[in-house]
Amino acid sequence: MGRSHRHEFDAVIVGSGGAGLYAALEASRVRGNRTAVISKLLPIRSHTGAAQGGIGAALGNLEEDQPQWHAFDTVKGGDYLVDQQAASILADDAVQAVYDLERRGLPFSRIEDGKIDQRRFGGHTRNFGEAAVRRSCYAADRTGHMILQTLYQQCIKNEVAFFDEFHLIDILFEGRKCTGVVALELATGDIHVIHAKAVLIATGGFGRMYRTTSNAYANTGDGLAVLLRRGVPLEDMEFFQFHPTGIRGMGILITEGVRGEGGILRNRAGDRFMERYAPTLLDLAPRDMVARAMTMEIQAGRGILGDPAVDDYLYLDATHLGREVLEKKLPDIADFCRTYLSLDPAENAIPVQPTAHYGMGGIPTDLDGRVVATGSGGLYEGLYAAGECACVSVHGANRLGTNSLVDLIVFGRRAGRHMADFVRQADFGAIPDDALAMQDVLARANKKPHDAHAEKIRTSMKTIMMDKVGIYRTGKALDEAVQELRGLRHEVAEVGVGDTSRSYNNDLLELLELQNLLDLSLITAASAAQRQESRGAHAREDFSERDDDAYLHHTLTWLDGGSVRFGKKSVDLSIWEPKPRVY
Ligand SMILES: Cc1cc2nc3c(=O)[nH]c(=O)nc-3n(C[C@H](O)[C@H](O)[C@H](O)COP(=O)(O)OP(=O)(O)OC[C@H]3O[C@@H](n4cnc5c(N)ncnc54)[C@H](O)[C@@H]3O)c2cc1C
User: Fold this and answer.
1) What is the DSSP code string of 485-550?
2) Is 370 a catalytic site residue?
3) Whole-model pTM over 0.90
4) Would you report the helix, strand and coil content of the chain in percent, each value rounded to 5?
5) Number of other residues whose CB lies within 10 A of the CB of residue 261
6) pLDDT tens across 481-529, in order?
7) Are 543 and 227 in contact (CB under 8 A)?
8) What is the C-alpha to C-alpha distance for residues 215 and 205, in angstroms, rounded to an integer?
9) What is the residue-wise DSSP string for 452-490?
10) Which residues are CB-contacts of 327 (< 8 A; sequence separation ≥ 6)?
């Protein structure tokens, strides 16, 4: 392996998506706070840049709207597993957060009087469920791209130090105090130990554990897996969202904004089948319900091919929106259709299938992004998490569309602010003796004989997750998945790296990412097996009802060697009583 280096910063942020950049912006606002961002990608290539449809905030620019309606929709959408004070903060702060982004230069789409335009999105309603409301603020279908550009330039202005193409491999602790991170510099193969008073993990999602996914290649859950190995628990990992409209066979996302603008899902008879599943909100019901409805249509032989035994699909019809609306409000989507399907969405319906999209679970945090160590709320010192890798929990068992971007901005900002104050009074902890332990692990992987095994293991993992830990689940399939994933974890430990070069060693990188995904797959399957009820995105065929008596609590999971240990954390139900979900 290469050489090792030491650095020192007050605040270190791992990940340069929306959550990481907003936190960095806040942490660096206090004069004298030395702030660094570490990212395995160039910052503006983070997956936030792929977000299309928008960011939800009750601005009420086109019709009446209120933050408390937004908070309620979030709680109901999450099937009452949402922490309700957190949801209130999300909805209240969203309004100011959107105006802050606007002032910082984000070019939102606008209505004629100059106000920010807003469109409908799944599960967002007026007056506690009466009808769909226009709440999603957007910049055409490039909202995330614009957020990243806006935040990145502001971070540069604040002189944040960027370590681009540095891959997090370890997080350092002195007892419960976080003291820094270890990263691999991709260009040189050198190891960097970065000593810090506070560390914030914002490494994004882990959708690459599934075969069909909307997620970028980099979404391998590294931050979660590294913390898991250091004894930090994860929360609610059984809840993984399938987005209803991925491009058939590819998983590439067609934003819910298409349905927000009036697009309709149709089966082989041309029927608007959502009329039967969600009579009020129709195609704009929450994603878990729409994805299940699509699966049921296909199973009943009403998919476009009419055969549940093949990889069937349905149509998303946007032809009636007209070319002008499509080109103005959904230009990238129109482009995707032409590029990937040789199809003009103004003329033809788009073939779609559900695609693995978003992990509701993650690193448990309090309302200021501080990482929680136990079910009773004990905290780590100087350790924060925000964004998709974190679990505040505002998404509960199912996230509403547009609420992830809100989560990044609201809780990224809160965590960054808390961090800025914390580092002013905190001391540096000690770097542990085993800080360079990962260097030996990497060197060993380089020495093992290489065969093509890693690719086989990756394919098996994705197939297991898709077939056994997908939209519908059974106890039997989940138990099998747990056993098979355990086996794959043993196998991957024996895989060697063929390429021994130090510069941009992608073989090594992909092996590290695969190990991370396997750990998270195991946690996801095991968490799903122990939750014997159906709630939000977790639909059990063998336990088809929600069971509030037995399961109205968050799941905490620890990975002890190869076995998963479970704990519970209570849900904050301080505002609304759980009710059945009807849309
Ligand atoms: C196609 C698509 C469309 C979406 N559209 C919307 C939408 O319209 N509205 C909405 O609310 N949500 C949307 N989402 C969800 C939302 O975009 C994501 O949940 C969110 O952007 C995640 O942001 P993040 O800051 O947590 O992480 P990301 O933006 O994913 O960034 C992760 C960062 O972590 C870094 N990183 C990861 N691992 C390491 C490592 N080992 N070492 C160093 N750095 C590392 C990466 O380099 C990257 O900078 C969409 C998601 C997808 C996939």
Assistant:
1) HHHHHHHHHT---S---STT-HHHHHHHHHHHHHHHHHHHHHHHHH--S-BTTBEESSS-S--HHH
2) no
3) yes
4) 40, 25, 40
5) 19
6) 999 999 999 999 989 888 888 999 999 999 999 999 999 999 999 999 9
7) no
8) 8
9) THHHHHHHHHHHHHHHHSSSEE-HHHHHHHHHHHHHHHH
10) 334
Bridge partners of residue 567, in order along the sequence: 556
DSSP string for 174-221: ETTEEEEEEEEETTT--EEEEEEEEEEE-----GGGSSSBSS-TT-S-
Backbone angles phi, psi at 227, to 5 degrees: -65, -40
Amino acid symbol at 209: M
Give whole-number Cα distances, 427 to 314, 371, 424, 430, in Å.
57, 18, 9, 10
- Measured at the alpha carbon of residue 569, what is the angle toward residues 399 and 24, in degrees to the nearest 5? 60
Rounded to the nearest angstrom, the distance between the alpha carbon of 18 and the centre of ligand 1 is 7
pLDDT at 1 over 80: no
Q: Ligand 1 pocket check: which of 108, 203, 513 to mutate, most ligand atoms within 8 Å of Cβ?
A: 203
**23 half-sphere exposure, CB direction, 13 A CA radius:** 36
Partners of 363 in beta bridges: 390
Tell me what pLDDT residue 143 has.
96
Question: Is 88 strand, coil or helix?
Answer: helix
pLDDT for the residue numbered 385: 98
Structure tokens at 235: 């929360």
CA atoms within 13 A on the CB side of 390: 34
Task: Single out the residue of 84, 2, 14, 10 nearest to residue 46, CA to CA.
Answer: 14
Q: Which two tokens stand for residue 556?
A: 């905490």
- Look at ligand 1, atom 2, and give the residue with the nearest C-alpha: 51
Nearest atom within ligand 1 for CA of residue 52? 8
Q: What phi and psi values does residue 300 have, to the nearest 5 degrees?
A: -85, 10
Residue 315 structure tokens: 């149509």
**DSSP for 114-129?**
SSBPEEEEEEEEETTT
Query: What is the whole-number distance in angstroms between the Cα of residue 149 and the centre of ligand 1?
Result: 14
Q: Check whether 362 has a pLDDT greater than 80.
A: yes
| Phi/psi-derived region of residue 352, left when phi > 0, alpha when psi is between -120 and 50, beta in every other case | beta
Which of 287, 368, 388, 367 is CA-nearest to residue 79?
287
Lining ligand 1 with CB less than 6 A are 14-20, 38-41, 46-48, 50-55, 143-144, 167-168, 202-205, 214-215, 218, 222, 253, 255, 358, 387-389, 402-405, 408
Query: Which atom of ligand 1 is found nearest the CA of 403?
Result: 11
Which pLDDT value is given to residue 453? Answer: 87
For residue 144, give both structure tokens.
Answer: 């995330």
* Average pLDDT across the chain, whole number: 96
| Structure-token pair, residue 487 | 């086996």
Choose the catalytic residue: 259, 287, 292, 399.
287
Tokens representing 358 are 């978003």
Which residue's CA is the closest to the ligand 1 atom numbered 31? 17
Contacts of 128-133 spanning 24+ positions with Cβ under 8 A? 128/69, 128/72, 129/72, 129/73, 129/76, 129/280, 129/583, 131/280, 131/281, 132/281, 132/284, 133/63, 133/65, 133/69
Distance CA 414, CA 430 (A): 27
13-63 residue pLDDT tens: 999 999 999 999 999 998 889 999 999 999 999 999 999 999 999 999 999
